[in-house]
Design brief:
Helix content is 70%, strand content 8%. By secondary structure, it is mainly α. It starts with a helix and ends with a helix. 14% of the residues are buried. The mean pLDDT is 90.
Amino acid sequence: MDNNKGENAVEQLAQLTMLLQKKIARTVMHHSKVDLSSLQIHALETLRGEKIVTMTVLANELRMPKTQTTRIVDKLVSRKLVQREYDSTDRRIIKVSLTEAGLELLNFVVNDAIEILADKLKSLDEKDLSVLSSTATRMIEVVKALPL
């Protein structure tokens, strides 16, 4: 890989990440009908991909200390969106899983975000929508292929 192209790609990806967070994620959270923090949604989304995870694995996936993860999980448990279960052989191991209510709410959050974004994208013309769609599709493919 040409070093200049690599550095340029890194800079553009970093800029895109910040822009998506600022323009898309914050807009969706601001207009959302759901009273969840972005960290709580991220935790639910992480649990959707896994059947049952330990608190340690969840904390690692969220990239935050277990104490902060515990607070997030406590709030989700109180709302019956996740359930906590102690390992039968080692009570120090705590497993967390998504409840049916948590899955339903997460699906609502996704659909809510789609509606909000669709409304915001109405201002784009067909050409811009086509470019955005094809570029986003390719970006998803490339990012999924990264060894992260």
